[in-house]
């Protein structure tokens, strides 16, 4: 494409009208249009509970001329249904894809609300195995946290399309690039890029305010963050945090937190300290920088110790 055509495309995109959203048509899902055709609902900085019904992670959708792609569906079927209502308040175009950025329940349990649309459920090529292995424990734990009423209708929907290589999905006048990642936050992380607006959906590879949680590899995650920091993007959407952020500064607090854990754990292992000792001090310099530190930090240190003990 010539420079003149690129400039013309940029002007056309900048002039594109924002799609309307009527918040009265959804009970609690309140997506904002962060770029033309890109909508993000911000989850709460909380753990799952009957009051929040699993609304603790960001959920997004992208509207093209031929259809819609949903990127993460929140933490219960009820929240997924409200997300679907919010989409229907914006557009009547078919919901073609439901994309999960990784396996965690706060991102996938809303999938059930979209089964009626018969979309392709899309994820990392390791997602089906991960969800299949953890299905019963995920359902039991989340029903207990949410309570029967808020959990009603929630189920694990396995992906019908697995992404092993970078893959493009066509929504009509816009494409989404899906990139499977090596083990980092989990072993099934998927980065989604809307190439039309240069919007990067990082899922839980990026946490802000909410303390990061390690369910994969701390070494792999830090290495991947270094690579993401070299990218150019107009905006990034985190899995937990504000609706949009900017690179590379969005990554700095998370990199600092994970590095603090890794450095402290490595030092304590070298000093012959035990896991029990490490969980009482490693990374605690970060305690005041994050919400939910008390709920997740010791688990993070435990995961890091198990990995780095054999480093």
In DSSP terms (H or I, runs of 4 or more residues), the helix count works out at: 9
Give the number of DSSP strands: 12
- Number of discrete domains: 1
What's the name of the CATH homologous superfamily? Answer: Ribonuclease Z/Hydroxyacylglutathione hydrolase-like
CATH topology: Metallo-beta-lactamase, Chain A
**Fraction of helical residues:** 25-40%
Structural class: alpha/beta
Straight-line N-to-C gap: 47 Å
Mean pLDDT: 92
Strand order of the largest sheet: 1-2-3-4-5-6-7
Radius of gyration: 20 Å
Net shape:
globular
Characterize the main sheet.
7 strands, mixed
Spell out the helices and strands N to C.
HEEEEHEHEHHEEEEEHEHHH
Percent of residues in beta strands: 15-25%
Per CATH, the architecture is: 4-Layer Sandwich
Q: Spans with pLDDT under 50 lasting ≥5 residues? A: 1-27
In short:
It contains nine helices and twelve strands. The protein is α/β, with parallel strands linked by helices.
Descriptive keywords:
311 residues; alpha/beta; 19% strand; disordered N terminus; globular; Metallo-beta-lactamase, Chain A; single chain
């Amino acid at each position: 494409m010539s420079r003149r055509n690129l400039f013309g495309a940029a002007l056309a995109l900048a002039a594109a009208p924002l799609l309307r959203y009527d918040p009265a048509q959804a009970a609690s899902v309140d997506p904002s249009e962060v770029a033309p055709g890109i909508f993000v609902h911000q989850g709460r900085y909380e753990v799952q509970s009957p009051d929040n019904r699993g609304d603790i992670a960001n959920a997004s959708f992208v509207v093209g001329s031929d259809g819609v792609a949903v990127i993460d569906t929140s933490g219960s079927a009820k929240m997924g249904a409200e997300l679907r209502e919010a989409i229907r308040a914006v557009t009547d175009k078919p919901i073609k894809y439901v994309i999960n950025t990784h396996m965690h329940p706060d991102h996938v349990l809303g999938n059930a609300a979209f089964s009626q649309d018969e979309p392709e459920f899309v994820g990392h090529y390791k997602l089906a195995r991960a969800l299949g292995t953890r299905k019963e424990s995920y359902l039991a734990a989340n029903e207990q946290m949410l309570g029967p009423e808020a959990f009603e209708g929630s189920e694990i929907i396995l992906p019908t399309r697995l992404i092993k290589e970078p893959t493009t999905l066509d929504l009509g006048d816009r494409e989404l690039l899906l990139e499977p990642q090596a083990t980092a936050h989990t072993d099934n992380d998927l980065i989604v890029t809307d190439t039309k607006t240069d919007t990067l959906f990082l899922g839980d590879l990026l946490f802000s305010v909410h303390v990061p949680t390690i369910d994969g590899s701390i070494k792999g995650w830090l290495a991947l963050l270094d690579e993401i920091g070299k990218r150019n993007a107009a905006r990034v959407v985190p899995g937990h945090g504000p609706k949009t952020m900017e690179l590379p500064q969005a990554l700095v607090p998370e990199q600092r937190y994970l590095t603090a854990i890794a450095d402290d754990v490595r030092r304590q292992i070298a000093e012959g300290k035990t896991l029990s000792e490490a969980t009482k001090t490693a990374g605690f310099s970060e305690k005041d920088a994050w919400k939910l530190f008390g709920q997740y930090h010791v688990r993070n240190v435990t995961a890091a110790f198990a990995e780095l003990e054999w480093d």
